[in-house]
Amino acid sequence: MKDLNQKSSPPPQDLKATIQNISLVFPSQETEQRSMFLSNIDQVLNFTVETVHFFGANVEYPFNIVTEKLKNTLANILVPYDFMAGRLKLNSKTGRLEIDCNAAGAGFVVASTDYKLDEIGDLVYPNPAFAQLALKTMDNLPQEDQPLCILQLTSFKCGGFAMGISTSHATFDGLSFKTFLDNLAALASDKPLSVIPCHDRHLLAARSPPRVTFPHPELLKIKVPIGQDQSNPTTVFEATPEELDFNIFSLTSGDITKLKEKAKADTNNGAQTHTRISGFNAIAALIWRCKALSCKDLERLSTILYAVDIRPRLNPPLPASYAGNAVLTAYATAKCEEISQAPFSKLVEMVSEGAKRMTDEYAKSAIDWGEIYKGFPHGEVLVSSWWKLGFADVEYPWGKPRYSCPVVYHRKDIILLFPDIDDSNGVNILVALPSKQMDVFQNLFKEFMA
């Protein structure tokens, strides 16, 4: 394991980014005026996600050329992605969020900082100051007219730059955002779209009448049916005011292989597990164990949640090019005492069963559940994985990003997985917990990997 925690030399907490220009970019061609249906999965994800993509200097593409090219490219991509130039609105008759595809525009920001790219610390280190590189809202516009997409370019003194993109999560999941980036890069290179996006979100509409055919302990009912008083939707996990420590646990590709071998060698009642042991399942099982046992109460139930792509699991399958949110929450739950005593292979098996449970009928039952109840994923910890999305593999005219990452906001109930900057198969695990729980989590993690 590498130690990425930089307590002795923390990165700058203020990047001193100065906005030079802020504007709206409109579709380069006329687009259809329409209201876009949002699925029950989209409805839940009414919050902003910011990602930052760092690029080194390229003499053939100085910052002013990149700025002009990306501004034009944004105008062009708002034609096939017309909803990205629209605005979220609440349909007063149905109580549902929709996108008004009104060509009101996406935000475009040009900024600069006096720092060089190499002076802002290890890019893998999740610095909250990176929020300065991805403007979240445009102060000159009212709340109801905020863009669903804001693209910010920030120049560094070395000639490198950051491309920050803020989007409403109601527009994309991680996979469809990766497709959007591929298409953005293709258009910037004067090539056709790499993938024609599928915008038909009725493909994930609830059945009529809705049929909830499974229990859904991974979802929390909030006793307000769809269509009633949804003017103030709640986000999936709220921030807590308590003081949190945070640590990054870095696993090399060799560490992950070792972890998988540990699960294979482990036995349950003398029988070797027959579960397919993926790197994610093994990592998630280790995280679950450490998180559950970081509290001393072994009588309580602990539930781990993680996202599963349902595109290939539906019958018929969704198009891989589906541009909305097509992920549902898988779960594993057990008493902390059981988690403490169970062989590691058993924990891996329990985690993997969450994804196996996500059949066509289970996914449709979960979507129908959302039609009846206003509710959200519910558990002790959500593992949010950015590990294999491949944002840093996108080839722009000026090259691939040196690193791509989300802007992080520390939550004790959300644990993030990031790719490693040097080891393409390595992973960095960001954990935020109260100090005493963090000490226990860290000791359990290091003992297990020793």
Automatic annotation (TrEMBL):
Keywords: Transferase. The keyword Isomerase does not apply. The keyword Magnesium does not apply. InterPro entries: CAT-like_dom_sf (IPR023213), Plant_Fungal_Acyltransferase (IPR050317). It holds the Pfam family Transferase. Belongs to the plant acyltransferase family. This is Transferase domain-containing protein.
